[in-house]
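Structure first, sequence second, as always.
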């Protein structure tokens, strides 16, 4: 069986389901890869299943590494305003055979993961603004 073309499937999904920008699906896929690689390095395993809570932590760290202080803004522009939205994206991808799941995986795994303000704004609060250099 031929693997589905990710871009074409995401285009079809977002044509009928306008909740999330296509970039949100690409971000989740890349964040899953980021999480899988981090687990591979820390646990010294080739590959294993990642549960919802592990994925949420990986998505948080991946987002911060990619977008820094703009993370909350970028995600909100894509329609992602909470951990439950990541779960919705994951399960839409599962429904379209872009991801797989185990019998234990469910949307509820993504509820109550973390507060977006705390996760994406608080790390940057209290950082003084850059001062312009004088004498240039």
């Amino acid at each position: 069986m031929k693997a589905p073309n990710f871009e074409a499937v995401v285009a079809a999904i977002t044509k009928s389901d306008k909740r999330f920008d296509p970039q949100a699906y690409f971000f989740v896929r890349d964040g899953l890869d980021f999480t899988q690689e981090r687990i591979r390095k820390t646990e010294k395993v080739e590959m294993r299943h990642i549960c919802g809570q592990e994925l949420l932590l990986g998505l948080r760290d991946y987002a911060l590494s990619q977008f820094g202080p703009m993370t909350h803004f970028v995600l909100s522009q894509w329609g992602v305003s909470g951990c439950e939205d990541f779960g919705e994206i994951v399960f839409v991808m599962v429904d379209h055979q872009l991801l797989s799941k185990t019998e234990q995986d469910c949307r509820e795994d993504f509820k109550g993961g973390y507060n977006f303000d705390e996760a994406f704004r608080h790390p940057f609060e209290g950082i003084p603004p850059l001062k312009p250099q004088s004498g240039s």
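Margin note: The mean pLDDT is 91.
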